[in-house]
Design a protein that fits this description.
Distance between the termini: 22 Å
InterPro entries: LRR_dom_sf
Structural class: alpha/beta
Strand content: 15-25%
Order of helices and strands: EHEEHHEE
Radius of gyration: 12 Å
Shape: globular
Largest sheet: 5 strands, mixed
Strand order of the largest sheet: 1-2-3-4-5
């Protein structure tokens, strides 16, 4: 879980964290669940999300801008997470 990161944004390091996670996942570890919460400065998902094909659960809460970008079918970041079967974005569940 990534949480309570009031100062975290893509420029300050989440992109580097996710690229590292994606690199490890691609080599041998299958990340199945990820939570991102209480990160109000996080404005978008990093590109490292798409390679996480084993991800089956993603929860995003208290990240207003990110929640908007992850809206089903219409959010700018939706294509990066559309493959995840169980999504909890804000207060709603978006299960396939």
């Amino acid at each position: 879980m990534i949480g309570e990161c009031e100062q975290l944004d893509l420029a300050s390091g989440l992109n580097q964290v996710m690229h590292g996670v994606a690199g490890v996942a691609a080599k041998s570890i299958s990340l199945q669940a990820l939570g991102i919460g209480e990160c109000p400065k996080l404005s978008s998902l990093p590109e490292g999300m798409q390679p996480l094909t084993s991800l089956t659960h993603l929860a995003i809460w208290d990240c207003k801008t990110l929640e908007e970008r992850c809206k089903r079918e219409v959010g700018e970041d939706w294509p990066m997470i559309a493959h995840v079967p169980n999504l909890e974005i804000g207060s709603s569940s978006v299960d396939d």
